[in-house]
Known about the structure:
GO cellular component, one term: cytosol
Radius of gyration: 20 Å
CATH superfamily of the largest domain: Aspartate/ornithine carbamoyltransferase
Strand content: 15-25%
Number of strands: 11
Shape: globular
Structural class: alpha/beta
Helix content: 25-40%
Pfam families: OTCace (PF00185), OTCace_N (PF02729)
Strand order of the largest sheet: 7-6-5-8-9
Catalytic activity: carbamoyl phosphate + L-aspartate = N-carbamoyl-L-aspartate + phosphate + H(+)
Pathway: Pyrimidine metabolism; UMP biosynthesis via de novo pathway; (S)-dihydroorotate from bicarbonate: step 2/3
CATH class of the largest domain: Alpha Beta
CATH architecture of the largest domain: 3-Layer(aba) Sandwich
CATH topology of the largest domain: Rossmann fold
Protein name: Aspartate carbamoyltransferase
Largest sheet: 5 strands, parallel
Oligomer: single chain
Order of helices and strands: HEHEHEHEHEHEEHEHHEHHEE
Amino acid sequence: MRHFISIGDLSREEAVSVLATAEHMAETQSRSLRKLPTLVGATVVNLFFEDSTRTRISFEAAAKRLSADVINFSAKGSSLSKGESLKDTALTLQAMGADAVVVRSGSSGAAHLLAHAGWIDQPIVNAGDGAHEHPTQAMLDAFTLRRHLRPGDARAGLDGLHVVIVGDVLHSRVARSNVLLLTLLGARVTLVAPPALVPVGASAWPCEITYDLDEALAAAPDAVMMLRVQRERMVGGGFFPTAGEYSRRYGLTVARADTLPEHAIVMHPGPMNRGFEIAGAVADSPRSVIVEQVASGVFVRMAVLYHLLATDVREGPREN
């Protein structure tokens, strides 16, 4: 891998390889010394144009556990807020010796532009771009799913599993990346959302679409992934009648969770709107793996950085 921009760039073999590496990274959790010397001397820059807590801290923790140096670069308070272009920012990061750049942007395609415009030569990792993709979130979701539902085989996919993804699909980069990755790994995916929150063109995605949550749950899925309703992006409103109506029709209540098969798990990429798209009791229930997803994110992002930096495709194995 030269960059990690889109799930669509990965083959099944590459995706499974990253997940297998993440399993090895997870083994370090049980050691007294969790740090690996793999990326000693490397510098990873977190270039975040959007606010983030989980993703930025997760990438920072992943890089530091691999012994890399980390620079957190926020658009707020930087020269970007004074009108500096993305190109000049990229050139500045390269001049400062960045070995990889993790970029999060509200603009779809920003990571792709950095990777392919020819401004810099470092690996680029997409930490979320607009409503387009969030590939490492999909990888950590797949990692969590496999650990619970396909344990014991580090090279296994998700063949035969049924995952239901519910909520604000229109504004969710997580949903798109998950549909692409989970189906690549052999799972069946069903999207559930109000008609106004289904993206134009979603009918071409490799998944099923329904507007009825109870109908989707009646199919006894192996996992239900709830999406945050991104009201800050709903300029003008009109996506659903009222918050109460949305919660009644699309919220994962205790009663709905009780209809799931005993082995089924509940997921959420966070942050959650408790009591809106998911009941607090469900989020805290034994079948919830929401907190575990956060931990999985560190292992998966360690694996991604390892694949991009531990072996340089141009020069062979990295020398520390």
